[in-house]
From TrEMBL:
Produces developmental and stress-related release of hydrogen peroxide in the apoplast. May play an important role in several aspects of plant growth and defense mechanisms. Its main location: cytoplasm. The gene is LOC125527267. SMART domains: Cupin_1 (SM00835). Keywords: Apoplast, Cell wall, Cytoplasm, Disulfide bond, Manganese, Metal-binding, Oxidoreductase, Secreted, Signal. One of its GO terms (cellular component) is apoplast. CDD domains: cupin_OxOx. Disulfide bonds join 33-48. Belongs to the germin family. Residues 63-217 form the Cupin type-1 domain. GO terms for molecular function: manganese ion binding; oxalate oxidase activity. This is Germin-like protein.
């Protein structure tokens, strides 16, 4: 009895530990580990610069996050400050982004494989939402959405597909988001699926999306241009 319950406990702990390892950045083992971006040594993250050579500028970036950005084809621009911009973020499990939205612009459906995101609206209004992972009915791929006003805060749980849309046809919107990784990563669903290089076979996509092959051709053409021009 004792040994089987300790095996169960061990399995539960192992599941917990491996879940933590894949869902969020590991905890730091020292005050800081400023990334040495030029080291040839490959580790999970970056090796530490000599702490005696660390100074305040390793934790600083004149990022102009107060300034508006030009927006892209879908009407948004994400300015992410991650470990590549501030080497001091290495091992600290956090990053920040400014997101600009044109009138009727959107930050299209995407996921961050390594981070939960907490977002606040600085200007304008945003219609935001996320979809839960595949679950048994009646909760399968449940869509949770909300209209946010200036000053409101919303959370997008790690890994889940989410978006923000500016419903105002006349005014831009601005948000600031914090993310629980030094390198959250982003997968924009449409671009990844229809704009991969090389393209995913349209036999695969036509079946997956349950449409005719020429619909897939059409979609791939849009995203091939987006991703590769
Ligand atoms: C996003 O903003 C930056 C900074 O203003 C700019 O350099 C970049 O071209 C913009 N991206 C797009 C897609 O417009």
């Amino acid at each position: 009895m004792a040994s089987s319950s300790s095996i169960l406990l061990f399995a539960a702990l192992l599941a917990l530990v491996s879940w933590q390892a894949t869902a969020s950045d590991p905890s730091p083992l020292q005050d800081f580990c400023v990334a040495d971006l030029h080291s040839p040594v490959r580790v999970n993250g970056f090796v530490c610069k000599n702490p005696m050579e660390v100074n305040a500028d390793d934790f600083f970036k004149a990022a102009n996050l107060d300034k508006p950005r030009v927006t892209n084809k879908v009407g948004s621009n994400v300015t992410l400050i991650n470990v590549m911009q501030i080497a001091g973020l290495n091992t600290l499990g956090i990053s920040i982004a400014r997101i600009d939205y044109a009138p009727l612009g959107q930050n299209p459906p995407h996921t961050h494989p390594r981070a939960t995101e907490i977002l606040t609206v600085l200007e304008g209004t945003l219609y935001v939402g996320f979809v839960t992972s595949n679950q048994p009915a009646p909760n399968r791929n449940k869509f949770l959405s909300k209209m946010l006003n200036k000053g409101d805060v919303f959370v997008f749980p790690v890994g889940l597909i989410h978006f923000q849309f500016n419903p105002n046809p006349h005014q831009p919107a601005i948000a600031i988001a914090a993310l629980s990784s030094q390198n959250p990563g982003a997968i924009t669903i449409a671009n990844a699926v229809f704009g991969s290089d090389p393209p995913i076979s349209y036999d695969v996509l036509a079946k997956a999306f349950q449409v005719e092959k020429n619909t897939i051709d059409y979609l791939q053409a849009q995203f091939w241009e987006n991703n590769h021009n």
